[in-house]
Amino acid sequence: MRILLVLWFMTRVALAREPAIWDQFVAPRSQAEANRVSGQLNQLYLAEVQRLARPQWWAKEVAQRCRQNLQEISSQGLAPPPDARRFVQEYAAEQQRLALLYPRCTSEIRLQTGETAGWDLPERSFRLTFDDGPKPANTGRVLALLRANRKPAIFFVLGKRLQEAAGALPDYQGFLLGNHSFDHSNLPTLNPQQLAKQLSQTEAAAAQAGLVLTRLWRAPYGARAARELKAAENLGLHSVLWNVDSQDWQPFMQSQPGRIARRTLALMLLHRRGIVLMHDIHSQTPAELALLLNYLQPLNFTIVP
Predict the structure, then answer these.
(1) pLDDT of 15 above 50
(2) Which one, out of 71, 210, 258, 295, has a CA that is 20 to 30 A from the CA of 56?
């Protein structure tokens, strides 16, 4: 168990050193321009992953998705700017580190049977998800933005934070809620009894708060294997991961306004479908979400429940 915790910590530290950013990114202003940028990014990502080549299973999966995306895009346009190439290289390195640690340290990098990360959604369709709440005032601002823009979202809540927010819970009406464990423990480090309690206590905390959780579940850090998935299955829970990581939890990402929104949009253009991961507990998230929603308006992307 201690080895698993060390591996997870090393993974996150490595990612924190070199997050992929694109500070010079200018958001496209039309669907045609978005397709052009998407084509450029997929061409760059395909070439970079083929250059890295390992692990083989990861390179093969990424290449297959890039080729699918390129088939969907009718116009790929001019050669990409140099800063796009740097962003893609940083992102490919970020993803390769996760792939090289698998399966010793699990994450969103590879799905197991019955899981989803958004790859199965239609083209230009995305789900917005928010983890680790509630943090009443901050979560309330996120909810208000989503309502004002008529966008659905899923909130993966912690049982402990539901208890702490008793009497001041944000109004989740109209939004889906999922189980994110009780206190954000690294589940593979727990014994079977502790693991089951992490999930069941959150169900109980939600019921006590008058909330109804869906049968959706997300493991903290994406850390789960067969044992954790079986424990969730015993409660009728379905594992939901992500493929667009905003990295909004990192101080480096939070240090410059707009950095989180630009990275998120760039990855949405690269992947063309998926599940976006954000966190409603950080003070920067509402402003970054507002900017992201503004970016998306002219692009004909669909935010699905």
Answers:
(1) no
(2) 71
Residue 83 burial (CB count, 10 A): 13
- Record the pTM: 0.94
25: tokens are 């990114």
Residue 76 pLDDT class (50, 70, 90 cuts) = low
Residue 79 pLDDT: 79
With beta carbons less than 8 A apart as the criterion, state whether 243 and 254 touch: no
At 11 the pLDDT is 47
Cα 149 to Cα 293: distance, rounded to the nearest angstrom: 8
Closest CA relative to residue 278, chosen from 294, 293, 262, 289:
289
Q: Tokens 């928010």 belong to which residue? A: 130
Q: Please give the sequence-ordered ranges of beta strands (E in DSSP) within the chain, or none if there are none.
A: 125-131, 154-157, 176-179, 216-217, 238-239, 244-245, 273-279, 302-303
Domain ranges of the chain: 26-101, 112-305
CB environment 15-38: b (16+ within 10 A), e (fewer): beeebbbbeebebbeeeebbbbbb
pLDDT interval class at 74 (50, 70, 90): confident
Q: Which CATH class is domain 112-305?
A: alpha beta
- Which pair of structure tokens corresponds to residue 119? 């790859």
Q: By the 8 A CB rule, do 228 and 195 touch?
A: yes
Tokens of 137: 């005032």
Structure tokens belonging to residue 88: 């893609």
183-211 pLDDT, tens digit per residue, is 999 999 999 999 999 999 999 999 999 99
pLDDT category, 138, cuts 50, 70, 90?
A: very high
Task: Give the separation between CA 262 and CA 91, rounded to whole angstroms.
Answer: 13
| List of residues 6+ apart from 115 with CB closer than 8 A | 229, 238, 239, 240, 241
Task: Please state, in angstroms and rounded to a whole number, the distance separating the CA atoms of residues 93 and 253.
Answer: 17
